[in-house]
């Protein structure tokens, strides 16, 4: 099934970086003849400023949180929030205030907060050997290698915690924390609120994408009424859902990443034991701008994911659904981050055979053939993936392959969709398996194990020498191999 352009589920949220006045640090002469250094602005904000007549939301980056606060106050901006861990203040500002804050002491970057992003959409646990790993290998705790003891944060449209794919043997849900990033359109402020675990945030957002993605991560072993058997990549992991709604901007997604940074050790709150609600060790991000873009190391997204890596959390990005031929980079910008433990995932298609000799999905975003920094890191199944859905949700209805769940009333609760949005959660679940195998592993060690053990399927661009073996601009180091990755980690 080929994806329609507006249904591609992959990529990331990051705006490409650029400058408003010139590349690098801009300078301007003041009336006294002195030279004032100005902080750069993001590409999106630079475009906004050319026509801005009112106010817009910005993220002011400082050498410290205090410096950013002082600059926002001095410029007369209306402060709306903060990302304390990375020294960023969110504010509402006019064009003149943006220009003023760029010259304030301690300001390092000014980023647009209202850039729109979208979900990219357009199981195969046999091709990844994930089912084999769960059936034959055990983690450090001695239990089957299912991702047990790990929570995966899924930043997406939301989740239906009551869906049969998330039902535990005791009747509870695999979704242990249910969050909602609430963004006020008039003031363009965002906050993350905890909701009861029975609230269906995906239906509230008229989404469906997040429930499908969450099922790929950690759907429980399920037999459909037609006899089909399904399970997620990590059927023992727990899910933490941070709903951004079906229509999101960069500020909402960054607010979700910031919440994970501040709460990954105890996502269900103080006093809830890790046996019930394990720490978050990996986030899945199947969203972003279409058309790729330049990697922006100054952006809030990159600062947040690097802080997460430093605290032991892997970040997984869908590479994007813009295809390409290697003549330009079309991959999701934040996934290009070279920091260990930040992964960009291409879509592999087994052609419905369950084998490892398939093809790179036509829609999967390619990097620039001459710039390895833009290439995906690894491939995972993303085409024709069956997972949890609801027939009345717009995204789910695009699959046209409704299947009924195990219960009498579970009508149309599964569907088949394609996209790098479906490939990324395979990797997120597999990362949970690897952390169960070695809880002391670092994000960089997890990434290395995945790359050195990847299966070299032959389709597409030729493999070239890379830091950890051979890689290519369309499929990265190859198809993920869970059994081999566990061996490489050990």
* CATH architectural group of the largest domain: 3-Layer(aba) Sandwich
Number of helices: 12
Q: Report the oligomer.
A: single chain
* Low-pLDDT stretches: 1-35
Task: Look at the helices and sheets and give the structural class.
Answer: alpha/beta
| Rg value | 22 Å
Share of helix, binned:
10-25%
**Structure summary, number of beta strands:** 24
The portion of residues forming beta strands comes to: 15-25%
Number of domains: 2
Structure explained in plain terms:
It is a single chain. The N terminus is likely disordered. Helix content is about 25%, strand content about 25%. Strands 9, 10, 11, 14, 16, 17, 18, 19 and 20 form a 9-stranded mixed β-sheet that branches. It has a 5-stranded mixed β-sheet with strand order 3-7-4-6-5. A two-stranded antiparallel sheet has the order 1-2. The two termini are about 40 Å apart. The chain folds into 2 domains: about 325 residues, Rossmann fold (3-Layer(aba) Sandwich), CATH 3.40.50; about 70 residues, Alpha-Beta Plaits (2-Layer Sandwich), CATH 3.30.70.80. Helix 10 runs parallel beside helix 12. It contains 12 helices and 24 strands. With about 500 residues, the chain is α/β, with parallel strands linked by helices.
Summary tags:
490 residues; Rossmann fold; Alpha-Beta Plaits; 12 helices; 24 strands; globular; disordered N terminus
Quick overview:
This protein has 490 residues and is an alpha/beta fold. It has helices at residues 43-49, 65-75, 95-102, 130-136, 201-204, 209-218, 250-263, 300-310, 394-397, 420-437, 443-452, 482-489, and strands at residues 26-29, 35-38, 40-41, 55-62, 78-83, 88-94, 107-112, 116-117, 151-156, 175-184, 189-195, 222-223, 229-230, 238-243, 248-249, 280-285, 314-318, 342-349, 359-360, 378-381, 385-388, 414-417, 464-466, 469-471. The protein folds into two domains: 5-9 and 118-440, 3-Layer(aba) Sandwich (Rossmann fold); 43-114, 2-Layer Sandwich (Alpha-Beta Plaits), CATH 3.30.70.80.
């Amino acid at each position: 099934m080929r994806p329609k352009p507006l249904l591609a589920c992959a990529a990331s949220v990051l705006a490409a970086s650029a400058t408003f006045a010139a590349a690098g640090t801009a300078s301007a002469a003041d009336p006294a003849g002195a030279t004032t250094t100005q902080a750069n602005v993001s590409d999106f904000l630079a475009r906004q400023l050319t026509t801005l007549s009112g106010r817009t939301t910005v993220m002011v980056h400082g050498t410290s949180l205090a410096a950013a606060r002082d600059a926002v106050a001095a410029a007369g901006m209306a402060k709306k929030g903060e990302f304390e861990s990375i020294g960023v203040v969110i504010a509402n500002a006019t064009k003149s205030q943006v220009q003023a804050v760029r010259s304030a002491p301690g300001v390092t970057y000014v980023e647009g907060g209202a850039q729109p992003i979208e979900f990219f959409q357009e199981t195969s646990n046999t091709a990844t050997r994930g089912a084999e790993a769960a059936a034959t290998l055990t983690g450090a705790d001695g239990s089957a290698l299912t991702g047990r003891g790990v929570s995966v944060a899924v930043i997406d449209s939301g989740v239906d915690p009551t869906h049969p794919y998330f039902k535990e043997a005791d009747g509870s849900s695999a979704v242990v924390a249910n969050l909602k990033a609430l963004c006020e359109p008039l003031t363009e402020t965002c906050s993350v609120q905890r909701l009861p675990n029975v609230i269906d945030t995906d239906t509230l957002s008229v989404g469906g994408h997040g429930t499908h993605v969450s099922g790929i991560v950690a759907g429980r072993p399920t037999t459909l009424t037609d006899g089909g058997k399904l399970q997620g990549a990590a059927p023992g992991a727990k899910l933490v859902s941070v709903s951004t709604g079906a229509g999101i901007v960069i500020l909402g997604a960054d607010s979700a990443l910031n919440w994970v940074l501040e709460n990954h050790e105890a996502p269900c709150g103080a006093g809830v034991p890790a046996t019930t609600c394990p720490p978050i060790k990996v986030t899945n991000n199947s969203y972003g701008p279409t058309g790729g873009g330049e990697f922006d190391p100054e952006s809030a997204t990159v600062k947040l994911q690097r802080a997460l890596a430093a605290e032991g959390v892997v970040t997984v990005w869908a590479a994007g659904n813009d295809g390409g031929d290697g003549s330009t980079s079309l991959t999701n910008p934040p996934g290009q981050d070279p920091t260990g433990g930040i992964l960009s995932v291409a879509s592999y298609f087994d052609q419905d055979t369950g084998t490892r000799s398939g093809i790179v999905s036509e829609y999967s975003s390619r990097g620039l053939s001459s710039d390895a920094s833009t290439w995906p890191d690894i491939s995972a199944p993303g085409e024709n993936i069956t997972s949890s859905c609801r027939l009345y949700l717009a995204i789910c209805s695009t699959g046209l392959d409704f299947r009924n769940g195990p219960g009498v009333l579970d009508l149309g609760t599964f569907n088949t969709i394609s996209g790098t949005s479906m490939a990324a959660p395979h990797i997120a679940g597999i990362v949970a398996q690897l952390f169960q195998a070695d809880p002391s592993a670092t994000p960089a060690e997890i990434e290395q194990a995945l790359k050195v053990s990847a299966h070299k399927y032959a389709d597409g661009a030729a493999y070239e020498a890379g830091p950890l073996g051979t890689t290519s601009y369309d499929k990265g180091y190859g198809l993920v191999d869970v059994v081999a990755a566990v061996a490489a980690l050990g």
